[in-house]
């Protein structure tokens, strides 16, 4: 055996060359230099400035070196370096830090020999750090080749541990986490020994290079003879033998931990030449160079082999030398071939430098493997797998080999686990990796392994081989091709193509091979002579791997399509091909990436690869919806003809993805305009494709109903109905849901056309088939099926008896009763809601909205139908015909439901309305409202009585307690149906107290409430029962004088008093709480006004001022004060002006800018009202004028008059509302309150009260009259009748009143200082 140590000694020139390159990098990069200094001094800190405090000479020397590197003056640089050298040489001990500084100094002063010696001194002083962190490149170039015996010794010891399994242990370990604690401990000891060996040999060889090589040929070319031979490589034998006897396996990947080995123990070393020595070395972490790494080292000279005392070491060395020789031969052949051809180029951009190094290492390694494989092809004997085929971590044959930048190859899952544990170095060499991202699969090695496995189907017991398909007795691909050539002469061309695909490194040759194979396959298919031998030959793992490598590297669309075509054809016929492709995740990822980039034919291959093993959730994570939509958008004529249509594969995959509820899939389909293409799949010969298309279209209609018209227009339903007959329960239910959604169109006539198609299409009777399935269908599927069956039955004129109708309605009733299946209850109720057949363009039921529209509330109906674009002609039908058809269908459906068993449906709906399940309660409520409302339209057959008994109480309860006003309206619509029945009217009168409050709340927004009120009050003298007022609270404020004014402002009650006080009140329960008391005005607050905008409060006072207030929280804040220059009586405000009654005659109009003018100066005005720019004045002479503020014209509503005897009666109060003017005067002429039209000034009514009215308030329904005697009369605005009289707490006159915004509370103030409130009871 040759001695690599003696032969590979580098000369002085080589040493100086490498050390100079190392120092040049350090000097040119301050960051690298500081990083190295920090590692040498600070224990691995990344920034030198963060390190520990330096010894003073070191600090001065470092400062001098830095100054010299930055200096441009040679004299300054020279003097600085001289000082630094003296400082470092004066130190009593030499450290790695000082050695590195000296190497920099010698390099700057052009003394390369001294610089090289100082660098090599690092390997003597700190070998572990030098080879792993400081100068790993120097270690590889100058040291690594000399450590071959140690490396081989370590490899053999590790292999011995790995192969030494016991009977109880499994033959191979795939997962690192399965390693026992004992094994981990044993391997840690071996690793420590190996590190000690490397450290000691680094020290010894560094001394040798410094003392012998550099000193003998300093400055020469390296030809000077060396004084003594290189030192022997030392091995630690004592513990290694102990390990060989005790340990059985080795795994280099272990968690970092403390080693249980004494650092002070002496070690015995053995030279490969027979010498021995002792050394005591602390254990340190170091990288482990592998034997493979040494085979590609710079040293090429060979010499006699060393003699190693340990026989195991000798065997290992011999074996590795043989391998090296084979690799050398292979490398020369590959180099010869490389001169003529180019390597395969990757698809992506040129690799970065680190990736180029990695690829280069992988390529060299693969050339060695190729040579080994060529020698293996010459033998037919079953042999153990070559070491290069076995992962050093798992001891298994590679399934997915990856070659790192260090040249080492590992199983992908094993090395990934190593990196996931936080490691960033190669497990064998311990070199730091520039990137923890793993490279792509080593396909050359993978192909070699696949071919070797074909020739060696029985592997050794200790090696786990990938699963493989049983093959016929075929010795080699050549024998298969030769057998085929006897039948067809073109097989020779195919054989050559397969060889090129598997073995050629020229991309063009491999691509041509693919096209040749594809052409041959097409010819055999056309001749219908596709033999098993050809198929099995192409399905071999080596050939499949060749196809995959083409997918990774080719950019030719034709070649890529042909490759995908062949793999799809093979995968559809041979499951082993799918297993080969799915064994490596990166292969599937590559195919997916090509598919997403536009290789749409790959969808067929993806279907075969993913469908058997991947869950729908996995398919969603692959994010290929857009690519699948692109397949559907492509014309079939533009795609290859494959074993499965690409569109079929796309529909099947898309169906699985959408089954998971993937968000965004429906949007992609609708925007991609492929709904029509999916509808075409309903006619497919494949039942699986039809069902998948049904599922996709169903999802689309539910999430985006705008596509429903397209589907209904283009769908052929006969194949779908055939799929129903032969499908399972899940498929049948999906088809039923699809058909049910299909008849939710926004045109009744079109719905009926689709129902006729469903009823008449198909080989079998659709209704009979549905009925049979209804009798055995699961409970949760029954309601939808029953709804569809009932609609089909009503297409014909309803008959007295129909088994389809009876069974369908019985199904609804039984499902609603079955509380053990709440989902079926909700489904039944929702199905009934949809039966009226009114839908918007999105397929949403309009039943509830249409009922609200019937009750006079159209907002909800308009919002649901505003997206409907087609409101005119559709399919030749006018809108009127559509509405008439909808009404006829509505009546037919309601009649069928209510007539079944004399209204049995009402009983179950009433129970559903009591449910705590909000969905069930709401659906039952809408269904019951619809059916009861339809009783008003249908002929009376006595069913209304059954509905009243079951539902009247429930509707009253909802009307009374519902918080949603629309729910109240629906309940009221149903209650109105009972008013046409004398018994129903009597029952409603019993609930009058419960419903009158709700009627008052709805009277503003719903015209139906007025109709009900009218019916309930028919034949009565008054409506007192509807307008009862209950006293809420009374407060004594007599210390502040009269309550001159009262107003509601943002849910607060504001009162103005005669002493100038303003008070803010809030009502809680039956108590008025005083929140704030203000004394901004000095005299009585005569007016409180809230303008129509409602954002401010204005107060007018007898102190000649008006103030503007805002409310913050519960308190008022004065914003502005206006000097009105006169007493302010009866202030009214509009926009930028205010009007008030001064102390004298006329009316003052005051602008907030300060200007004012006097109007109507000939009259003494008593009261004012301002509405829409018109000022209404009630005067002391009983006249009423209307003044247009824009033109200042005055017109009379009532002329005044003078009495010869006695006082003239003034107009005490004036209110304007809804175009009517209400005036209060003396009752002497028989009518204290007169009502005038604001438009023509004619009198339209009067209130015959005998009270002396002093103040008045008008709401939308009532008129409140406050009298001089302390009583308040309440009158009905519509009927002009008194409905109630209430009495203030004292007999003092009522001088101010206000009604809250909801018109539920009345507040009044009296002349003796009391504030009192009443509420509608």
How would you characterize the overall build of this protein?
By secondary structure, the chain is α+β, with helices and mostly antiparallel strands. The protein has a four-stranded antiparallel β-sheet with strand order 6-33-32-31, with no helix packed on it. Mean pLDDT is 77; it is low at 1-8, 43-53, 165-179, 218-226, 237-381, 458-488 and 869-877. WD repeats lie at residues 1078-1111, 1294-1321.
Determine the mean pLDDT.
77
Figure out the total of helices: 50
Overall 3D shape: flat
Round the Cα radius of gyration to an integer and report it: 50 Å
Helicity, in percent? 40-55%
Number of strands: 33
What is the spatial order of strands in the main beta sheet?
Answer: 6-33-32-31
Low-confidence stretches: 1-8, 43-53, 165-179, 218-226, 237-381, 458-488, 869-877
Structural class: alpha+beta
Organism: Linum tenue
Biased composition (Low complexity): 314-334
Pathway: Protein modification; protein ubiquitination
Protein name: RING-type E3 ubiquitin transferase
Summarize the structure.
Helix content is 48%, strand content 14%. It has 1321 residues and is an alpha+beta fold.
How are the SSEs ordered, and which strands pair?
Layout (H helix, E strand, L loop, with lengths): L3 H4 L4 H17 L1 H13 L13 H15 L3 H16 L6 H13 L3 H14 L1 H8 L1 H8 L4 H16 L17 H37 L17 E2 L1 H9 L20 E4 L5 E4 L11 H5 L15 H28 L14 H25 L23 E3 L5 E3 H9 L22 H13 L21 H9 L5 H13 L3 H20 L5 H7 L2 H13 L3 H17 L1 H8 L2 H12 L5 H9 L5 H6 L3 H9 L12 H13 L6 H7 L3 H6 L6 H17 L4 H7 L3 H9 L2 H14 L5 H13 L5 H9 L7 H12 L9 H15 L4 H13 L12 H8 L4 H7 L13 H21 L4 H10 L4 H17 L8 H19 L3 H15 L2 H9 L1 H11 L4 H10 L12 E8 L6 E7 L2 E6 L4 E7 L2 E8 L6 E5 L7 E5 L3 E8 L2 E9 L5 E6 L2 E5 L5 E5 L4 E4 L5 E7 L2 E6 L4 E5 L4 E6 L14 E5 L2 E5 L8 E5 L5 E5 L5 E6 L3 E6 L3 E6 L4 E7 ...
Antiparallel strand pairs: 1-2, 2-3, 4-5, 6-33, 7-8, 8-9, 9-10, 11-12, 12-13, 13-14, 15-16, 16-17, 17-18, 19-20, 20-21, 21-22, 23-24, 24-25, 25-26, 27-28, 28-29, 29-30, 31-32, 32-33
């Amino acid at each position: 055996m040759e001695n690599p140590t003696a032969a590979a000694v580098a000369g002085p020139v080589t040493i100086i060359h490498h050390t100079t390159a190392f120092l040049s990098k350090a000097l040119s990069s301050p960051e690298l230099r500081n990083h190295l200094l920090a590692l040498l001094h600070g224990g691995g800190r990344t920034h030198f400035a963060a390190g520990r405090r330096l010894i003073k000479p070191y600090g001065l020397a470092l400062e001098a070196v830095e100054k010299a590197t930055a200096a441009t003056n040679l004299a300054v640089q020279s003097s600085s370096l001289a000082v630094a050298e003296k400082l470092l040489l004066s130190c009593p001990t030499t450290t790695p830090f000082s050695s590195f500084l000296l190497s920099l100094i010698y390099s700057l002063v052009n003394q390369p020999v001294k610089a090289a010696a100082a660098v090599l001194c690092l390997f003597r002083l700190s070998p572990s750090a030098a080879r792993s962190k400081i100068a790993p490149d120097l270690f590889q170039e100058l040291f690594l080749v000399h450590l071959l015996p140690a490396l081989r010794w370590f490899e053999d010891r590790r292999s011995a541990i790995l192969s030494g399994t016991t009977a109880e242990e499994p033959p191979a370990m795939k997962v690192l986490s399965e390693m026992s604690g004992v094994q981990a401990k044993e391997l840690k000891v071996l690793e420590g020994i190996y590190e000690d060996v490397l450290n000691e040999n680094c020290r010894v060889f560094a001394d040798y290079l410094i003392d012998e090589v550099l000193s003998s040929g300093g400055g020469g070319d390296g030809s000077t003879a060396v004084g003594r031979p290189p030192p022997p490589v030392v091995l630690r034998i004592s513990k290694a033998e102990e390990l060989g006897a005790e340990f059985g396996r080795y795994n280099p990947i272990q968690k970092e931990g403390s080693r249980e080995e004494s650092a002070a123990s002496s070690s015995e070393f053995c030279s490969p030449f027979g010498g021995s020595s002792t050394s005591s070395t602390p254990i340190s972490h170091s990288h482990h160079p592998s034997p493979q790494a040494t085979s590609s080292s710079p040293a090429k000279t060979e010499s006699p082999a060393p003699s190693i005392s340990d026989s195991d070491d000798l065997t290992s060395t011999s074996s590795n030398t043989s391998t090296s020789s084979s690799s050398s031969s292979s490398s020369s052949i590959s180099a010869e071939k490389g001169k003529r051809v180019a390597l395969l180029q990757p698809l992506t951009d040129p690799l970065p430098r680190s990736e180029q190094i990695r690829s280069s290492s992988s390529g060299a390694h693969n050339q060695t493997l190729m040579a080994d494989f060529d020698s293996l092809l010459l033998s037919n004997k079953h042999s153990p797998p070559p070491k290069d085929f076995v992962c050093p971590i798992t001891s298994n044959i590679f399934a997915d080999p990856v070659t790192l930048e260090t040249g080492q190859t590992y199983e992908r899952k094993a090395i990934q686990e190593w990196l996931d544990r936080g490691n960033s170095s190669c497990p064998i060499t311990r070199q730091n990796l520039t990137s923890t991202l793993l490279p792509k699969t080593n396909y050359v090695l993978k192909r070699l392994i696949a071919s070797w496995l074909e020739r060696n189907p029985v592997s050794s017991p200790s090696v786990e081989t990938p699963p493989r398909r049983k093959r016929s007795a075929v010795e080699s691909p050549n024998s298969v091709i030769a057998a085929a050539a006897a039948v067809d002469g073109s097989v020779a061309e195919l054989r050559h193509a397969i060889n090129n695909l598997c073995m050629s490194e020229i991309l063009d040759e491999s691509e041509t091979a693919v096209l040749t194979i594809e052409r041959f396959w097409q010819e055999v298919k056309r001749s219908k002579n596709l033999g098993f031998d050809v198929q099995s030959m192409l399905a071999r793992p080596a050939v499949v791997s060749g196809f995959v490598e083409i997918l990774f590297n080719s950019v030719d669309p034709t070649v890529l399509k042909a490759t995908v075509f062949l793999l799809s054809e093979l995968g559809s016929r041979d499951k082993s091909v799918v297993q080969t492709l799915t064994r490596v995740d990166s292969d599937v990822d590559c195919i997916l990436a090509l598919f997403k980039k536009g290789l749409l034919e790959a969808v067929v291959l993806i279907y075969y690869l993913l469908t058997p093993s991947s869950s729908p959730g996995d398919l969603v994570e692959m994010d290929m919806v857009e690519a699948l939509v692109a397949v559907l958008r492509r014309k079939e004529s533009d795609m290859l003809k494959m074993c499965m249509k690409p569109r079929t594969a796309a529909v099947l995959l898309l169906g699985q993805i959408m089954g998971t509820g993937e968000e965004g899939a429906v949007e992609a389909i609708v925007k991609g305009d492929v709904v029509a293409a999916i509808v075409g799949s309903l006619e497919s010969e494949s039942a699986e494709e039809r069902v998948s298309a049904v599922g996709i279209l169903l999802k689309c209609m539910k999430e985006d109903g705008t596509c429903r018209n397209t589907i209904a227009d283009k769908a052929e339903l006969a194949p779908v109905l055939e799929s129903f007959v032969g499908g399972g329960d899940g498929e049948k239910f999906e088809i039923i849901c699809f058909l049910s959604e299909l008849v939710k169109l926004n045109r009744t006539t079109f719905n009926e056309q689709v129902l006729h198609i469903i009823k008449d299409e198909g080989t079998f009777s659709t209704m009979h088939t549905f009925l049979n399935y209804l009798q055995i269908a699961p409970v949760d599927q029954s309601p939808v099926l029953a709804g569809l069956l009932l609609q089909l039955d009503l297409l014909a004129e309803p008959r007295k008896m129909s088994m389809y109708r009876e069974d369908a309605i019985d199904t609804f009733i039984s499902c609603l009763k079955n509380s053990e299946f709440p989902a079926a209850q909700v489904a039944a109720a929702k199905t009934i809601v949809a039966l009226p057949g009114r839908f918007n363009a999105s397929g949403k039921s309009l039943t509830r909205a249409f009922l609200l529209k019937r009750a006079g509330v159209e907002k909800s109906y308009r919002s649901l139908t505003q997206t409907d674009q087609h409101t005119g002609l559709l399919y030749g039908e006018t809108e009127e015909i559509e509405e008439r058809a909808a009404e006829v269908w509505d009546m037919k459906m309601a009649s069928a439901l209510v007539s079944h068993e004399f209204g049995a449906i009402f009983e179950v709906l009433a129970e559903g309305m009591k449910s705590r399940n909000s969905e069930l309660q709401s659906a039952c409520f809408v269904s019951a409202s619809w059916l009861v409302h339809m009783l008003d339209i249908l002929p009376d057959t006595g069913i209304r009585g059954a509905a009243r008994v079951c539902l009247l109480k429930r509707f009253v309860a909802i009307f009374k307690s519902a918080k949603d006003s629309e729910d109240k309206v629906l309940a009221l619509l149903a209650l109105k149906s009972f008013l046409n029945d004398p018994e129903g009217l009597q029952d409603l009168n019993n609930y009058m107290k419960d419903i009158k409050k709700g009627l008052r709340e709805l009277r503003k927004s719903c015209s139906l409430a007025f109709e009900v009120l009218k019916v309930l009050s028919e034949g009565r003298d008054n409506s007192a029962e509807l307008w009862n007022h209950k006293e809420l609270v009374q407060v004594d404020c007599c210390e502040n004088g009269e309550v001159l004014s009262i107003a509601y402002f943002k849910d607060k009650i504001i009162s103005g008093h005669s002493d100038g006080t303003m008070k803010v009140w809030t009502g809680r329960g039956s108590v008025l709480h005083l929140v704030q008391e203000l004394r901004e005005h000095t005299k009585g607050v005569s007016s409180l006004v809230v303008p129509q905008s409602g954002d401010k409060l204005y107060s007018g006072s007898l102190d000649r001022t008006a103030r503007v207030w805002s409310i913050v929280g519960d308190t008022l804040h004065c914003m502005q004060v206006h000097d009105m220059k006169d007493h302010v009586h009866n202030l009214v405000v509009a926009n930028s002006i205010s009007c008030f009654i001064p102390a004298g005659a006329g009316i003052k109009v005051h602008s907030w800018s300060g200007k004012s003018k006097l109007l109507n100066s000939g009259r003494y005005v008593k009261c004012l009202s301002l509405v829409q720019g018109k000022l209404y004045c009630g005067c002391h002479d009983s006249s009423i004028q209307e003044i247009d503020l824009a033109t200042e014209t005055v017109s009379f509503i009532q002329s005044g008059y003078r009495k010869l005897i006695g006082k003239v009666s003034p107009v005490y109060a004036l209110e304007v509302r809804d175009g009517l003017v209400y005036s209060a005067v003396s009752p002497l002429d028989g009518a204290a309150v007169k009502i005038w039209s604001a438009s023509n000034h004619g009198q339209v009514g009067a209130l015959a009260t005998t009270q002396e009215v002093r103040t008045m308030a008008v709401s939308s329904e009532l008129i409140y009259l406050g009298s001089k005697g302390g009583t308040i009369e309440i009158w009905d605005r519509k009927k002009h009748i008194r409905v109630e009289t209430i009495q203030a707490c004292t007999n003092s006159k009522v001088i101010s009143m206000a009604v809250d915004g909801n018109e539920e509370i009345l507040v009044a103030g009296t002349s003796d200082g009391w504030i009192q409130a009443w509420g509608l009871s």
